[in-house]
Amino acid sequence: MAMTATQGTAGQSMVGRSLGDRLILAAIIALVIVWIVPIAWIAGLSFKPNSELMASTGTLFRAPYTLKNYTDILASSGVFRWILNSVVVALGQTVGVLVLASLAGYGFARTQFPGRGVLFALVLIGLAVPEQAVIIARFQTFNDLKLHNSYLGLILPHLSAPFGVFLMTQYFKAIPRELDEAAMLDNASRFKTFWRVLLPLTVPAQATLGIFTFLAAWNDYLWPLISATKPEMFTLTVGLASTQTNFAQSEGLGFLMAQSVFAGLPVLIVYLFFQKYIVTAVAGAAIR
After folding, report:
1. Fewer beta carbons under 10 A from the terminal one: N or C of the chain?
2. Contact 231, 239 (CB under 8 A)
3. Could you tell me if residue 131 is inside a domain?
4. pTM for the whole thing?
């Protein structure tokens, strides 16, 4: 009888667990639908003629469809220049942040120096300072240095990445110190230990940080709008916005949606290629 009671309790537990798993799965599916429907709506409208959208946006699932909105984007004389600018700025920021954050993270996690705690606290405080709070001082500084309308002017401000330093510091701290000691026993220098032993172990964290940095740089609008005043130095976000008329929402809704899809595709492609590193990094952080 005791065995029967135990089996009954176990069965009830499995039923309850199964019901709970189904509820969680249903909630996840609902959230996915809520997240993906607006994106599908934007993509669908981008293939509709603007003349038809002026009458109604409820014709999404009915013909006609057209590629004219995308050909109008490509017909713009500066669009490929804007894409090049965005690629240079996004890659420059990504590489710079990865290099500086990795070095700073290693320094905070593995070395002892006067004021280390205070300096790290200042880095964390930087997470709470919004970009808008320093935008005027930044503009004046770069204006004095004559760096506006240049790649350096677009890249340098975002190389200070407090989140990147914090992430890499925590990741380096999680690596056993025995690896450093073993490398030093083999007469490896501190830099060689960092470069050959520890840095390869942080690839998941670097990939995650790199993707987030690239995405933020690609979608950045405020600073390129302020710093780049010449059309040939526009990034894609600023360039596409400059092609919109005052009545873009009513006269060119399909064109507006096509611009959104066009600007977002490169980031989506990068994410699809590197998503496994994000999953690995998040899983590793959860385990720690």
Report:
1. N
2. yes
3. yes
4. 0.77
